[in-house]
């Protein structure tokens, strides 16, 4: 069994920074050391663990299978250490540390979201507080909160997951869109014809939204899938597919005349957003963030930003 020493923790933090930044060169700014030093440190960690963590060279940076497993374990360990430090700060009656927060993609344009105001309120608590933001799919965020790599996550989580606590926040409204040169964008199409043709159109959907999309459209399968909102928007802007997008996100392309919303009176969906945490007693850092989130929501600050 490997005994973990301070030097190992330092090397694990270097490894985590390299993975998060996508390579040695990209991690230089965060670590404030040269690429050769980072390479030496990763080599030292590989010797300590007796595994090859990553491939690096002309083909670029890539984690090995063992490297992926080691990184996930390192994130859990580093998060546990940070949690201990937060708990220790209670003895000094201070709140400090880095909050690992998960978000789903492309919610920054939603004025209903309380996150901008909450983060501002949270960071104003003191210079000892920081935030690391991770973007992922709902299922990925749920798993990362469960295993401790994330302290909390905000997004659309349609299913109740054992071990997680969810607090409702706000609704995100989605509309059905097509590209401006798509045949369904023709303003002269009668409403009945448009509805019929929508049900036979090629649909682009995100996996975690797909069943709701298809049920509303009355179709059996999608023509294309995308892992996130941006990728789905590219498919729709290709003028080959239709799909549901958040109204706040699609607004810029609608204003530029590149997207057209179809049948807005009936073809809309609502996604309930919530904040999830582990069903354990939260650390002071997490409690502070949740308190700031609740205060932002109750005061309506998010709507005024």
Structure, described:
The strands form three sheets. Strands 3, 4, 5, 6, 9, 10 and 11 form a seven-stranded mixed β-sheet that branches. This protein has a two-stranded antiparallel sheet with strand order 1-2. Strands 7-8 form a two-stranded parallel sheet. The mean pLDDT is 86. Strand 1 and strand 2 form a beta hairpin. The chain has 305 residues and is α/β, with parallel strands linked by helices. The protein has eleven helices and eleven strands.
Major sheet size, sense and barrel closure = 7 strands, mixed
How far is the N terminus from the C terminus? 52 Å
- Spell out the helices and strands N to C: HHHEEHEHEHEEHEHEHEHEEH
CATH topology value of the domain at 171-271:
D-Maltodextrin-Binding Protein, domain 2
Rg from C-alpha positions? Answer: 23 Å
Number of strands: 11
The structural class is: alpha/beta
What is the C-level CATH assignment of the domain at 171-271?
Answer: Alpha Beta
What is the compact description of this entry?
This protein is an alpha/beta fold.
How do the strands and helices of this protein lay out in sequence?
Blueprint: H1 6-21, H2 24-31, H3 35-49, E1 54-55, E2 62-63, H4 65-91, E3 97-103, H5 115-123, E4 129-135, H6 138-146, E5 152-156, E6 164-179, H7 191-198, E7 204-205, H8 210-217, E8 224-225, H9 229-237, E9 242-246, H10 247-255, E10 259-262, E11 268-278, H11 284-299
Parallel strand pairs: 3-4, 3-5, 7-8
Antiparallel strand pairs: 1-2, 5-11, 6-9, 6-10, 6-11
Helix pairs in contact: 1-2, 1-3, 1-4, 5-11
């Amino acid at each position: 069994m490997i005994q973990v020493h301070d030097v190992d923790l330092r090397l694990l933090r270097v490894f985590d920074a390299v993975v998060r930044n996508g390579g040695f060169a990209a991690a230089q700014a965060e670590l404030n050391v040269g690429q050769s030093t980072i390479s030496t440190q990763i080599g030292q960690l590989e010797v300590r663990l007796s595994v090859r963590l990553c491939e690096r060279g002309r083909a670029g940076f890539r984690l090995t299978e063992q490297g992926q497993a080691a990184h996930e374990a390192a994130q859990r360990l580093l998060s546990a250490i940070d949690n201990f430090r937060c708990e220790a700060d209670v003895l000094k009656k201070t709140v400090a540390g880095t909050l690992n927060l998960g978000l789903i993609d492309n919610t920054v344009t939603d004025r209903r979201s309380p996150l901008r105001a909450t983060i501002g309120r949270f960071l104003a608590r003191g210079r000892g507080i920081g935030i690391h933001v991770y973007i992922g799919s709902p299922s990925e965020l749920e798993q990362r909160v469960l295993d401790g790599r994330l302290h909390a996550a905000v997004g659309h989580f349609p299913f109740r997951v054992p071990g997680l606590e969810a607090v409702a926040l706000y609704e995100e409204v989605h509309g059905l869109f097509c590209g401006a040169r798509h045949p369904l964008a023709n303003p002269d199409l009668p409403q009945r014809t448009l509805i019929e043709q929508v049900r036979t159109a090629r649909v682009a959907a995100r996996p975690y939204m797909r069943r709701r999309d298809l049920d509303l459209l009355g179709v059996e399968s999608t023509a294309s899938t995308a892992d996130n909102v941006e990728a789905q928007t590219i498919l729709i802007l290709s003028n080959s597919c239709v799909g549901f997008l958040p109204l706040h996100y699609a607004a810029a392309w609608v204003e530029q005349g590149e997207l057209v919303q179809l049948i807005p009176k009936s073809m809309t969906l609502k996604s309930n957003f919530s904040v999830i945490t582990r069903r354990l007693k939260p650390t002071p850092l997490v409690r502070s963030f949740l308190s700031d989130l609740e205060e932002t929501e109750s005061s309506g600050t998010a709507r005024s930003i």
